[in-house]
TrEMBL record:
InterPro entries: Dimeric_a/b-barrel, NIPSNAP. This is NIPSNAP family protein. Residues 3-105 form the NIPSNAP domain. Coiled coil: none annotated. Transmembrane segments: none annotated. It comes from Billgrantia zhangzhouensis.
Amino acid sequence: MLVEMRIYYCAPTRLPALLDRFRSTTLGFFDKYGIEQIGFWTTAVGADNHALTYLLKWEDMAQREARWNAFQQDPEWIARRAETEREKPIVTRIENSFLIPTDFSALR
């Protein structure tokens, strides 16, 4: 198992727009492409409270590349994402890391 941690840093005041896009659009595309989420979090206390952090679960990097690339190239996804950013951008920066659970992790 491989866990991908993604952190989306939003422009000021744009976190609600990102949350709405995930609720109403992105998660449907995740389902379409078999992208399995572990969870989503906003930052209550920390360096940046305009951030959304989420974890995705993959069998391996090959599965991740196939499914993520198909999702990113979907013309409907591209159009709907562009529509949400028509007035101004939502995300200013994205970080992602790939995590492998230890043998003593509750999640393996």
